[in-house]
User: Fold this.
Amino acid sequence: MRKRSWAPAVLALASATFGAGAQQQHIPIRKEPGPRPLSRPFRLCAGGDVTLGTNLDPTWARVAADSLYRQFGLRADPDSLGAQLKPFLTGADVVLLNVEGAIGSGRAPRKCGPKSTSCFAFRMPRSAANAYRNMVDSGVVVIGNVANNHARDAGDDGRDTTVALLDAAGVFVTGYDTTATAVPLPSGDTIGVLGFYTDNTAPNARDLAAVRRAVSRAAERYAIVIVTMHLGAEGVGAQRTRNANEIFLKNINRGNPVAFANTAFDAGATMVIGHGPHVLRAAEWRDDRLALYSLGNLLTYGPFKLREPTNRGVVACATVDSARSVSAAELRPTMQLWPGVLQADSTNRAWTLIDSLSALDFPRTGARVDSTGALRKRGSRGQTVPIQWDF
Assistant:
């Protein structure tokens, strides 16, 4: 009986195996789909610090409420205070505000020592959560940032209560961890929003590697990523923006605003919006993306020291067209006559301040504020049609 040869079969198997390998080398690798582009642009209006009262200082609250009514005819409840903001937010699809304080009631751990002169604690009444939501019509999305130095004024539990109350009121909350807040828009699009503060108890704006990771993750998931930062030294002497760490009260590192913005933009942010210094700061164009380094105090009803220029604020509005394009940016100047008493600034002082600071701090990329309040690029002299807002 003749022995069977396996050579042809082995050769055939080898040919099929290597042939299949050769074919596989030409099969393109499938990439995970990126975020879906915006179906249509949206209008974002952002403001700085908003505080609608405090119940941690009953003596101040009683005296202030009496003065507020007798001198200005205003009631101290959050809804009455917040209603003053509505005209400044006209035309917005999305509103982003810094929630400067806790929200809640009942006993709270004491934050400030009895002899402290540089410590402030704010906790707004529970009704403040709905007041933030009611500043605009129901079709407008409201986002509240809690990455700041007052979110824990009533302790860790107080911060958690603040987040829960805002969420229950229909306010999207950002800044409580490093995961971007998913914000659905009326168009059906969803954007990502991240908040940072210079502290280890919040997403830390000083840890630039962590900032890069958080923003990069968000940019992989969302077509648009908006980043807000509570960062920088505070007060009258803190109007300039420099590429250096800023020190507050001699030893508190309040971060490097320019390095933070660089990191956020490199990681995919469309806008970087700042607050925290309690004064207005420069605005800067990064090609067609926009950095606003501080929008100042917007509506702060509490034991604040409101003297020039800390009484000046601004609502900044811009149309977000795509991940790398912002257009039709404009400033709506505000002034507080007294803590919590807001009016449009007829002198448009914010325009002058932001224009001058932008030229000083960013000679090539700083925004130019034209005679209508539009934020334009240096050297651009195009005509601007002012957007109407209700007053």
